[in-house]
Structures are given as C-alpha cells and as structure tokens.
Amino acid sequence: MADQGTTMDTEEKPQTESVATEKSKPKSKAPTRKKSGASSQWTFPKNSLEESISIAKAIEEQNGGNPMKADILVKAVGFKKASDWRFLDLLRSANQYGLVDGTGATATVKLEQIGQDIVAPGSPQDRQRALSSAFRNVEDFRRVEDFYRGKKLPEDEFFENTLFREFKIPRDRVRTFIEIFTRNLDYLHAFRAEPGPESEPEADKKVSLADQSKEIISDENRRTRTFLDSCFVMMPFGHWYDVYYKNIFIPAIKEAGLEPVRGDELFSTGSVIEQIWEQIQKAKILLADLTGKNANVFYELGLAHAACKPVVFTAASLDDVPFDLRHLRVVIYDVKDPFWGEKLTSNLTAYLKAAKNEPEKSVPQPFRELKKNEE
Known about the structure:
With 375 residues, the chain is an alpha/beta fold. It contains 13 helices and ten strands.
C-alpha cells in the first residue's frame, strides 16, 4: 500500500476593502484539516521481520552476499517488477529492520551486518542477537516492548488507545502496528500465553488469540529462536505430551537444524485453522505424533499432505499409524524401554535430517506427483 501523503492546509487569499465591498467579498475558504495521524513516512515496517528476512536471504543465496540491483533482487523474492508496491514495501521494511541498505526501484541493495548475521551467522548466538537487534532497530517496536515487558498486553481497544496516545502511533495505522508487532514477538518466541480468566481449555483444545492473555516475557526467560527454517509439530497437548515436546521433540528438532513450532505457541491474528494452515505452509518439515489417533492431528496431517509438505511420523505403536502411511518415515518408540527417550531423540533427529535432504520421500506418492505437475 502506498504511503499516505500529508494533506496541506489551504491558505486564504488576502482581500482589500478597495477591491471588493463587504457584500461582494469572496467568502473565506475554511482551511482543510489534517487527517489524524497522517504523515509521509511510516515509522515502522509494513512487513514482519520473518517476511523481510527474505530480502537478506535472497542476496546471500542468489549473489553470495554481494550487493544486488533492485531489478534483479525483485525476481529473487518472487515478484516481477521492481516498481511493484509489494516489493517496495518489503524492501523498505528490510531497511527499517537494519537488514539491508538501499531502497527504491533503482537501488543497489547490500547486506548490513545484522542481515548477514541472520542469514549467514558464525554461531547460533550471532543469529539470536541479530534477530533481537533487527526487531529493536525499529524504535516504535523497541519502546512498546520495553514498556510492556513482564506485563500482560491489554485488550485490543485499550492497547490501541495506549499506542495512539502514549506512543503517538497514528490512529489509522494502529491495527497494522499491532499485527506486525505481535507477529514479530511470536516469531522471536517473546510471548507467553495463559488462558484468560473466562477460559479453561481442555487439554487438547487449541486456544485462539482472543481467548489468551499475552505476556511479553523477559529475554532471560525466552526460548530464543535459533534457526530460520521451522518444523511444525502436530501432536496432542497437555500432560505427558507437553513433557515429551519440551524434553524430547524440541532438542531433536533443533539438533536437526530446525526451529520447533507447536500449535499452542501461535499468537497470530485470525482463526485457529488459519494459523495452523499458515504454519504448515511455512514449515520446512513437519513432525506428527500419531499416538492415540488424535482427530486434530489427523486433520492437520491431511492439510500438510494437501500442501505437499514432507512429514516425519512418530507413534508409541505401529497400530496408530494408518497402513497407507507406513511406507513413509515412521519412528516407533516404546516407553517400557528404559532408554526410550534418548533413542527417540536420536532417531527423530536422524529422520528429520533425512527428510530435509530428500523431502520427496516423506510425501505420499499422489501428492508428490501433484507437486511435480505444479512445478
């Protein structure tokens, strides 16, 4: 969306008594009032950090990290013309996060240190620091995060009013700010959610954003993001499943070079199924625990296969795995084995790495053929 320009006040032309009588004087034209919050520049990005990283990633992957002309870069990120407003917004966002330098359809765009440390870091700590620095490079985001750190965000209406009055975010841009701000903190694992006072969800019920109170947690308590590519985990919630996810699945996924994401960690706006579908499409690999034949897991699995995404399966019993899927990568674990946890972690890491290297072998044949036809 193109930036909104400032509406200028209309000046009244002076009149003299000798030129026109009081009766024949032209009526003064009332000055045009400025629209509330209108300005020529957006002070915060219109795109999320995750989206903006695609600019830095394209420069690193397509040109070895060397500067790229905008008319070449535009094709590397999926657009056709450098004048496309969507590309220009994305490029400006990448500049505002400090990932790159150079904006506009004729610009030469080069990686900044923050962008380089995100897409080609020397260590996990470099990426973690760079992601945090990119977010805080936007002064509006940094100020709001500092104000609410350790606190629960207020309900939408009160949050909007605070942003407008205390942080001077233009009224017509407040909702966009909330969306991008929230998506960024979600991406950085900077949110903690608890069921609201009126909500006591069942163990396997996914709670929507509207039903949760969201708290911005301190840096030392965050599960800091390490990898750009994600692994979306489809599994039941609650009780032992949460223990498995924390102590087995997360370490195994990270060892495979992927960032774990689970349904109850999502804070994006929209319905639950929209958030699930978005994460399925974004994920490099998916992991499905079929133990107990949970209906939600199987529904999400169907979406994953429809999206032609590679999925690694795990289950406590082979009987929980549909016969038609047993030829795919399946990790069976036996909790009666005293070393089952270590074995499961090791096997999951190996299977996830194999799925990264040969993703087509983790997609059922009908969907694999469909993907080939689309390509």
